Automatic annotation (TrEMBL):
InterPro entries: AcylCo_DH-like_C, AcylCo_DH/oxidase_C, AcylCoA_DH/ox_N, AcylCoA_DH/ox_N_sf, AcylCoA_DH/oxidase_NM_dom_sf. Keywords: FAD, Flavoprotein, Oxidoreductase. This is Acyl-CoA dehydrogenase. Pfam families: Acyl-CoA_dh_1, Acyl-CoA_dh_N. It comes from the Bacteria. Residues 203-319 form the Acyl-CoA dehydrogenase/oxidase C-terminal domain.
Length: 354
């Protein structure tokens, strides 16, 4: 591999932010997550990380200052999510700040310091795969009472919660409640639609962070591992594997940056957001397939061991790409948008031109 190719791949492997944020803030977020990962190996859990994030004003990063938040925006929140994913740190920051507390603030309901998550109940008052429900103090639930959507901020002890895990080992619990016992606050259907899109974008951002680390690990291993008397990075087949990871990660990031930028620019009011989220989630989903497959091929047997950190990023990438809509679901959504646009409308849809 030529020196310029090695330099390019090493640059691609470095952690990047989704959009421009204050460098000092980005460095602080990365340092906090890196320090917690080291502390986690010594037995530190989510509670210790949560306390530190609370002290730094990061658990409600996007909440208004009037409601006790830090008054930041989605760009800063995206950087925090990327930093956590990049360092293999798992915590309910997104569910608490960007979903649960946002819902309460939107509905004009009070927000205390309790740790929260959120879920959408089905007609039977149940939800599956709810992130961190068993370890949250309160759960913001959404349901439809036949006339309108309602939300309520419910103590976890008042719910039936069955603990579960996703394939990465993160809490994904089953929740059930008799909605007739709840006192709800009505919210417009648009709030529920935006909540779904927010959740989908959250997972796309997290997968981008994981892919960055997968790429970094693959570049480092290919450069360090000696096989048949020379580094793996000297073999053209390995170069192609790593280059494909870099290309797919860049495509996923570009698509995710696109929807994030549009969401920030329009304050989540753009009519194109559903299409853009579908684009991002489709790109991210397929990028995760290539990234995980190629990274494990580059690492060989050592990449499958618990001692090696690769699985801390490949397993979450695969789990996250299937949450809040599977890859097939978002591929179908993308197809529906393209079909509805028709021959004359497809190019304007893709390019964002009228």
């Amino acid at each position: 591999m030529r020196e310029e190719e090695t330099a390019l791949m090493s640059a691609c492997a470095k952690k990047r932010v989704l959009m421009t944020v204050d460098p000092d803030l980005a460095d602080m977020m990365s340092a906090v997550c890196a320090a917690h990962r080291e502390a986690h190996e010594r037995g530190a859990g989510v509670d210790e990380l949560w306390a530190q994030l609370t002290e730094l004003g990061l658990v409600r990063l996007t909440g208004s200052e009037e409601s006790g938040g830090s008054g930041a925006g989605w760009v800063e929140a995206a950087e925090l999510l990327c930093a956590a994913a990049f360092h293999g740190v798992s915590a309910p920051v997104a569910e608490h700040d960007l979903l649960a507390c946002w819902l309460l603030e939107t509905a004009g309901l009070p927000i205390d310091a309790s740790r929260r998550t959120a879920c959408l109940l089905d007609a039977a008052g149940a939800a599956r795969g709810v992130p961190w429900a068993a370890t949250s103090e309160r759960v913001v639930v959404i349901w439809h009472d036949g006339a309108a959507h309602q939300i309520a901020d419910v103590q976890s002890s008042a719910l039936s919660v069955t603990p579960g895990r996703n394939t990465a080992g993160e809490p994904r619990d089953a929740v059930a409640v008799d909605v007739a016992t709840l006192t709800g606050t009505p919210v417009p259907d648009a709030v529920v639609v935006q909540c779904r899109l927010r959740a989908a974008l959250i997972r796309a951002i997290q997968v981008c962070g994981a892919l960055d680390r997968i790429l970094e690990l693959s570049v480092a291993h290919a450069g360090e591992r000696i096989q048949f008397g020379r580094p793996l990075a000297k073999f053209q087949a390995v170069q192609h594997l790593v280059a494909d990871i870099a290309a797919e990660a860049a495509l996923a990031r570009a698509a995710t940056e696109g929807v994030l930028a549009e969401a920030v620019r329009t304050d989540w009011t753009s009519e194109s957001l559903d299409f853009l989220v579908a684009v991002a989630r489709s790109c991210v989903g397929h990028a995760a397939s290539v990234g995980v497959r190629n990274a494990h091929q580059v690492h060989g047997a050592i990449g499958t061991t618990r001692e090696h950190r690769l699985h801390e990023f490949t397993l979450p990438a695969l789990a996250w790409r299937s949450e809040y809509g599977s890859v097939q679901y978002w591929d179908d959504k993308l197809t529906d948008h393209a079909t509805a646009a028709g021959v004359d409308g497809l190019w304007p849809l893709v390019t964002g031109t009228s």
